[in-house]
Inverse folding.
């Protein structure tokens, strides 16, 4: 049984994440997906709650070719302890998939094998770019899996992002 680990903030979950997870599913028996900064929501960089992100990921991966577990993980703001914290919250895994330099560094130092998947259409498949488009009323729905559009409709996600971006008095 080979279990792989993949972590992100998924603000929101987008096609880049989906593409990578579909590739990982071909290489492992099970995938553990960590939702980082799980405790943060309702900010410009982290608008969605851990539970909302669980919905986006679980629904988008309903047809995935292997079982997966979605685990919210609070940020402890202690990089030197972070891998131990992750391991304390997740099912055991054999390797980590990440292209984030800090994540790669921390897992490598901890002796966990790391593979770095290639980026998929990174210019537009990017949480930062998608949040910017939501704020500015630009096209974003085609950059995320269809179930993510449904979740964001259900929680009125774009209106939330726009409201928290306003200044006092503009409420
Ligand atoms: P943000 O801009 O908010 O940081 P992001 O698009 O980088 O969002 P994260 O949730 O930070 O998404 O990333 C989770 C993981 O997904 C990271 O390892 C990141 O490198 C990877 N990732 C992000 N975008 C892509 C993409 N287009 N293709 C492949 N991997 C991606
Ligand atoms: Mg990122």
């Amino acid at each position: 049984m080979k279990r792989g680990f993949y972590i992100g903030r998924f603000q929101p979950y987008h096609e880049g994440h989906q593409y990578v997870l579909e590739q990982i599913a071909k290489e492992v028996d099970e995938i553990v997906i960590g939702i980082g900064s799980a405790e943060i929501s309702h900010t410009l960089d982290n608008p969605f709650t851990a539970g909302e992100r669980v919905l986006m990921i679980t629904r988008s991966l309903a047809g995935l070719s292997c079982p997966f577990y979605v685990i919210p993980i609070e940020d402890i703001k202690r990089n030197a302890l972070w891998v131990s914290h992750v391991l304390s919250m997740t099912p055991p895994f054999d390797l980590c998939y990440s292209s984030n330099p800090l994540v790669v560094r921390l897992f490598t130092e901890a002796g966990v094998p790391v593979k770095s998947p290639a980026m998929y259409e990174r210019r537009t498949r990017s949480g930062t770019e998608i949040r910017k488009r939501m704020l500015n009323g630009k096209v974003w729905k085609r950059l995320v899996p269809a179930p993510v559009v449904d979740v964001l409709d259900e929680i009125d996600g774009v209106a939330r992002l726009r409201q928290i971006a306003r200044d006092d008095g503009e409420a």
About this structure: The pocket of magnesium ion (ligand 2) is lined by residues 127 (CB under 6 Å).
